[in-house]
Amino acid sequence: MKAGKSMLKILAGAVAVQIGISSYGSAALAQPTLVSPNGVRTLSPPGAIQSTGTWNLGTRAGDYVYVAGMRGIDPATDKLVDGEEARIRQAFLNMQTIAKSEGASLRDATRLVVYTTDMYRYRPIVNKVQEELWGAGPYPPRTIIEVDRLNQDDIVEVEGTFYAPPVAVGTAAAPSPEAENVSPNGVKTLTPEGAIRPTGTWNLATRAGDHVYVAGMRGIDPATDKLVDGEEARIRQAFLNMQTIAKSEGASLRDATRLVVYTTDMYRYRPIVNKVQEELWGAGPYPPRTIVEVDRLNQDDIVEVEGTFYAPEGADGKAKSDSAANVSPNGVKTLTPAGAIRPTGTWNLATRAGDFIYVAGMRGIDPATDKLVDGEEARIRQAFLNMQTIAKSEGASLRDATRIIVYTTDMYRYRPIVNKVQEELWGAGPYPPRTIVEVDRLNQDDIVEVEGTFYAPQKASKLHFQSR
User: Fold this and answer.
1) Strand, helix or coil at 417?
2) What pLDDT score was predicted for residue 386?
C-alpha cells in the first residue's frame, strides 16, 4: 500500500506544480478583524501570508493563540522559498509573525506539531532551525511525525499553540533569572522528577494557565533512556510517561481533555492501545481520541501519544467526592449530547475543560444507523456535522472553532471536497485555522477524519444562545 502511494506521489508532482501557490495564499493587506459569536478572533496580521480558501492563519480565544499549519511561503513573493533549510526556516518565521502580532514570542509556544514527508532527511534541519530561533531554549513540547503528503507536495508543515494573556500583549517582559523555565508570558516548561529526558530541540511539556500540554510520548524507559522491549509494554510505557508529567501538575489521566495517537500500523497496534487505555483508565470515562496511521515516527517507533490536560492552579488530581460520573477530578466534563454518534471503545466524543471544548476525530458516521454514510461528499459532510452537533451542545457554533486538523488518505482527491463542504457550512467565513495532512490509514479504512477545538465561555455562550 505504501509503495503504491509513493508512486502516486511522483505522478501527482506535476499536478501539484500546476496547482501552484495560489492554493496557499498571497502577501496582501491584512483583512479586517473578525470575531465569532463567542469571541474567537480571526487573525490576519500585516506581514503575514494571506489565506485563500476555507482556512485562516490563526485565532485568538481567551488567553490562547492558535496558528494554522504553516509552510515555507515567502509573504513578499507568494512562492515557496527555494532550498530545504530556508523553506523550513520560513515556515517557523511565518508562525512567529502571527504569534508576535498577539504579543507572544516563540518562547510562549505551548505545543508544536511538525509534519514532515521525510523524517530522517528533514528532522535534523528542523532541529537546526529551532536551535537558531529559540537559542538555548527552553524549547516547546513537540511532536514530529512523517506523513504521506502535505499540500503542494511540500516537505514540512508546523502547527502551534501559544499563550498570550491579553494583559501581556505588547508588554511581555523577559523572565527573571530565577525563572529560566518560564516564558515572557508565563509558559512554564516542565521537567518533573521520574520523567524521561528530552534530547534536542523539544521539551516534555508546558503549563499555560490551567492547561498542561504534553509532547508526543513514546515507550522510553526513564531509567535507561531506551525503548522498552515488547509492543504492549512499550505502548503502556508511552502512556505512563505521559501520566508522570500530567501528575506532576496535579492532573490524573481522567483530566485529559484530548489525545492524539500516532501509530505506524492501525490494525496491529490500535487493539493494544485500546487494551492499555482500558487498563489505565478503568471503566472510564475516556478522553476524546484521534488515532491515525502515519508513515514513520522517530527511531522507527510504533506508537506516539500526545495529550492535553486540565489542571487549574492548585489542583491536586485527587477525586472529588461530589464529582459527577462524567466529570473528572479537576472538572473535565465528558460530553455525550443527544443526536451525536455513539463512541465505542476507549474514547469519548468530546470534553469541556473551562471555556474550551475538545472534539475527538469525527468521521462520517450516521448517528441514526451507526454506519458510515455512502458517497464521498456526503460522508465528509457528515464528519463535519457530527463535530457541529457536539460543539453546539455546549453553546458553540462552527464559527467558534479555534483550530481544526483534517486527516485524509488522499490529499488531491478529498481536499477539494473538504473545501466545498466547509464553504457550505461556514458560509462566507471566517474559517478556522486548519492543518490538512495525508496519512496512511484511518480507522475502518475511512477517507477523512476531522478533529477540532472550540471556544465557548461557560456563562457568555449560554447567554448568547438563550437569546437567539
Assistant:
1) helix
2) 98
Virtual CA dihedral for 234, 236, 237, 243, nearest 10 degrees? 160
pLDDT in tens, 112-129: 999 999 999 999 999 999
Q: Inform me whether the pLDDT recorded for 341 exceeds 80.
A: yes
- Please state, in angstroms and rounded to a whole number, the distance separating the CA atoms of residues 400 and 41: 9
Confidence band of 9 (pLDDT split at 50, 70, 90): very low
State the cell numbers at 283.
Answer: 471503566
CA-CA distance, 422 to 225, in Å (whole number)? 44
Count Cβ atoms within 10 A of the Cβ of residue 4 and give its class: 0-12 exposed, 13-18 middle, 19 or more buried: exposed
Is 10 exposed, middle or buried (CB count within 10 Å of its CB: 0-12, 13-18, 19+)?
exposed
Q: Is 222 exposed, middle or buried (0-12, 13-18, 19+ CB in 10 A)?
A: middle
Rg over CA atoms, the chain? 21
Question: What are 96-105's pLDDT values in tens digits?
Answer: 999 999 999 9
**Sequence-separated (6 or more) residues with CB below 8 Å from residue 294:** 145, 146, 147, 148, 262, 263, 264, 439, 440
Cell of 164: 498570550
**269's grid cell:** 497496534
Residues 6+ away with beta carbon under 8 Å from 103: 164, 166, 168, 169, 170, 171, 172, 185
Q: Enter the DSSP assignment of 204.
A: S
Q: What's this model's pTM, rounded to 2 decimal places?
A: 0.90
